[in-house]
Write a structure and sequence with these properties.
Elements (H helix, E strand, L loop, with lengths): L1 E2 L2 E2 L2 H11 L3 E5 L7 H13 L3 E6 L2 H15 L4 E4 L4 E2 L5 E5 H9 L8 E6 L11 H10 L5 E6 L5 H12 L3 E5 L7 E7 L3 E4 L15 E2 L2 E2 L9 H8 L5 E4 L3 H14 L5 H14 L2 H4 L2 H10 L3 E4 L5 H12 L5 E4 L13 E4 L3 E3 L4 E3 L2 H8 L11 E6 L7 H9 L13 H10 L2 H8 L3 H5 L4 H19 L11 H6 L6 H8 L9 H12 L14 H11 L3 H6 L2 H15 L4 H4 L7 H21 L3 H14 L2 H8 L2
Helix pairs in contact: 1-2, 4-5, 8-11, 9-12, 13-14, 21-24, 21-26, 21-27, 22-24, 26-27
Length: 638
């Protein structure tokens, strides 16, 4: 079978046949095998028949990339995007959105659900994510029974169970199409200074390697270790480029890139000229003034780059463009580069097989490893993909390394939990009997009927209902009150935002003060973040005098974040230039923009939630103050 000029593999043909029969399909296949072609076929089929398709992605960056790709394939008039802070062409037959937006639309019974045929869940294994997995689970649970799913994922060991669960709650056929053979096979190795590059299969007792020792003026010193670093590994790789070198630390991405740029230059004069032309064409003057641009420019002109979430979005796009054109030989990247972005390399390196996950340092699990390792090997170019992990012999756990590099063994697990928003929307739209059925529709309940976890979910629901009744969001008859209805449209810190903006409190606050409050609510603190607070005391004090008479707000508002952010947010709200904000904090430019876009997202939720015209007007002005210049151009420039 041919599609888009390609001869399809058997697993792709099987998937398409199930789609033709109007069934749901779970496609479980390694990274780089072409499973997204089944998504392309689904979109093509239903757009031709004038029916709607939604494509959901786990991160906004992937949503943006897919939006651009689909515009090239199907035309601007046929494609829309919805990511909370950005809405373009929402009536289009093909809509790209984050999974959170799709779930929110289901809960609010958005009219967009009409005429919807298929929902494509890219990276469906995110359902196992500890923080966000419940969004994917609720998206399936709350979807109308008329909708069909195409779920794309790397290998899922328990895919059959997952399919049975969806079929049991949706009442239609769900097929699993598995494919475990990569088009370009991978070789898995480790690099240690004495061993050099060694196949993982040949590893035995890495700890038995002798330590290094040095002599000085004829006197023997105590043995001293000199573990290998990224420069040693890049030197070992030689010309087996391009290489994506994964590091679980942003600062190290930049540091390593700059260190290598002092040693190596991968570019010819012609390549340097082409790089500069692309930069000048796609980066405006404002971005070229930024410190981050000046830091990365020297690396780029030597065929070296870095990519992480703290970069300005326009700079990330430049890096991606140059990499796609073969003008980057070594790219240092955090793991977000591997999520859905189709940019394979000849070689993939790991600076470590351990990472900090927000709770502790641990080895990668097999799914995380293969998500990144799978970028090695370019179809039609390389006979195999090379994967090399830097290891320290003093700490290396050979058995763990062998296990995680052998095959993807991580099953999908349920992370289902109830938010305040979900509880309110359940009460608003469902009977008690329907709610009971929905609470028993999660994947964990399917696997372990009447498990302890399920008992906790029911208890959590009852406790939330009790608390919401006490706070005036639900009345004694379990109907939604006006305040409760407001909160059904808020998807983050529902109670905090509703207490602030359902009342008339906002009338006593200026636009700048409102922006400061919302910034404090959405800001995610990092341990090393620093802010200038000079001049913030007066504004901070006035805000507290207005909001703190509300006991809930007094207890729940993060006063530390509010005080630290006030000077910076006030400066931006009062028309200062973006480059001047860098003097108010040590945040990376991309992090500042992401903070602003999260503020805008919440403000748009408030506008949708309220029937108060004055509040809508004030919130629109708040958005105008934030969504300007480089913050607005961040998306438009794409």
């Amino acid at each position: 079978m041919q599609f888009k000029g390609l001869t399809l593999d058997e697993f792709q043909v099987q998937s398409i046949n199930h789609i033709e029969n109007n069934d749901s399909v779970i496609v479980s296949a390694p990274t780089g095998t072409g499973k997204t072609l089944t998504a392309d076929y689904t979109i093509h089929k239903f757009l031709e028949s004038k029916r709607r398709v939604i494509y959901t992605a786990p991160i906004k960056a992937l949503s943006n990339q897919k939006y651009k790709d689909f515009i090239n394939d199907y035309g601007k008039e046929n494609v829309g995007i919805m990511t909370g802070d950005v809405v373009i062409n929402p009536d289009a037959p093909l809509l790209v959105m984050t999974t959170e937006i799709y779930r929110n639309m289901l809960l609010s019974r958005d009219d967009i659900m009409e005429h919807l045929s298929y929902v494509i869940f890219d990276e469906i294994h995110y359902i196992s994510d500890r923080e966000r997995g419940t969004v994917w689970e609720e998206s399936i649970i709350f979807s109308p029974t008329t909708i069909r799913f195409l779920c794309l994922s790397a290998t899922i060991p328990n895919a059959e169970e997952f399919a049975e669960w969806i079929s049991s709650i949706k009442g239609h056929n769900v097929h699993v199409v598995s494919h475990d053979k990569r088009a370009v096979p991978l070789t898995h190795s480790v690099f240690e200074k004495t061993l050099g590059v060694t196949d993982v299969e040949k590893l035995t007792h890495i700890q038995d390697i002798p330590t290094y020792s040095i002599r000085s003026r004829g006197r023997r010193k105590q043995p001293r270790e000199y573990p290998a670093n990224h420069k040693d590994l890049i030197k070992e790789i030689g010309n087996n480029v391009p290489v994506i070198y994964f590091i679980f630390n942003r600062k190290s991405c930049e540091k390593y890139s700059q260190e290598l740029a002092k040693m190596r230059d991968y570019c010819s004069k012609q390549q340097k000229k082409e790089i500069i032309e692309i930069i000048n064409k796609h980066l405006n003057a404002e971005v070229r003034q930024m410190q981050s641009y000046r830091k990365i420019r020297e690396c780029l002109t030597k065929g070296i780059a870095y990519h992480h979430a703290g970069l300005l979005p326009n700079l990330k796009e430049i890096v991606e463009r140059l990499f796609e054109k073969g003008l980057i030989s070594v790219l240092y990247a955090t793991e977000t580069f591997a999520v859905g972005i189709n940019m394979p390399a000849k070689t993939v390196c790991f600076d470590s097989l351990e990472k900090y996950d927000g709770y502790s340092f641990r080895y990668l699990n097999s799914k995380e490893y293969f998500q990144l390792a799978g970028r090695a090997g370019r179809r039609g170019i390389d006979t195999h993909g090379t994967v090399i992990a830097l290891v320290d012999r003093r700490r290396a756990d050979i058995e763990k390394i062998k296990k995680l590099t052998d095959k993807d063994i991580e099953p999908i697990v349920s992370q289902f939990r109830l938010s305040v928003n979900t509880v309110l929307n359940l009460i608003k739209a469902h009977t008690e009997e329907e709610i009971d059925t929905i609470l028993k529709s999660n994947f964990d309940y399917f696997l372990r009927t009447k498990s302890d976890k399920q008992v906790r979910i029911v208890a959590s629901y009852n406790n939330k209902v009790k608390n919401l009744t006490k706070m005036g969001y639900i009345d004694e008859e379990k109907h939604i009150t006006g305040k409760g209805d407001f909160a059904t449209h808020i998807y983050f810190e529902e109670l905090l935002i509703s207490e602030l903006f359902y009342s008339q409190m906002y009338k006593k606050l200026s636009v700048t003060e409102i922006n400061c409050i919302i910034a404090a609510i959405v800001y995610e603190e990092r341990r090393m973040d620093k802010f200038v607070t000079k001049g913030a005391k007066s504004t901070y004090g006035h805000i507290l005098s207005i909001i703190c008479p509300n006991r809930y707000l007094d207890r729940q508002i993060n006063k530390k974040s509010l005080f630290r952010l006030t000077a910076m947010i006030s400066a931006w709200s009062n028309e200062e230039q973006f480059i001047e904000l860098l003097g108010y904090c040590n945040l990376l430019e991309g992090d500042i923009i992401r903070l602003f876009r999260r503020i805008i997202d919440v403000q748009k939720q408030i506008i949708k939630a309220t029937t108060d015209g004055d509040l809508r007007d004030k919130m629109s002005e708040c958005i105008r103050r934030i969504d300007r210049d480089i913050v607005r151009a961040e998306f438009e420039g794409n």
